[in-house]
Amino acid sequence: MPIAAHRETYVERGIIEPMDPDRPERDQPWDQTARHETEAERLDRNWSSLLQELRVVQTGVQLLTGLLLTLPFQERFSMLDEPMRVLYLVTVACSAAATALLVAPVGMHRILFRRHRLNLLVSAAHRCAFIGLVLLGLAMTGVTELIFDTVAGREAGVIAGVIALLTFVGVWLLLPFAMRLGHPMSTGSSVEFGAQRSQ
Question: Any idea of the CA torsion for 32, 36, 38, 44, to the nearest 10 degrees?
């Protein structure tokens, strides 16, 4: 099916097109119809939603990174063999990179403040948050394996690490991507509700 015809079927059915963070204008007709909002209002809403999501993870990833950075100064750290020390360093790297990416939108906002670049900021912050969450999942997997390996042995560590990795991949990636395959919201009920609100 040609792309133009595919887009027409979405419009005819009153359904939003598949979202592309680099082309938010494709989402704008649905927002105007269903939410009665301008592009600036949509960007403000997207930015607020993104900040709320980042608040959920920022504290946790910062605490995790801080904890990991103190481990080499603990007495039992010398018990780790070479593979576990490598795993520790990879885990610290993932956690530190996740911290940088999940806090980056704040720095971007400060530098771009009153520069009228909210469209670029929302798109860049979306990518930072996504990559940061992937790295946070990897860091949590590494921490899980380190703890189980130290407490219960190598086999338990590997099993726990695999289970943690599968859990994060399943819940944070596969489930949301599967949800994207479903039918998007139509504008019908939203338009009626919006009309009632405006009266």
Answer: -110
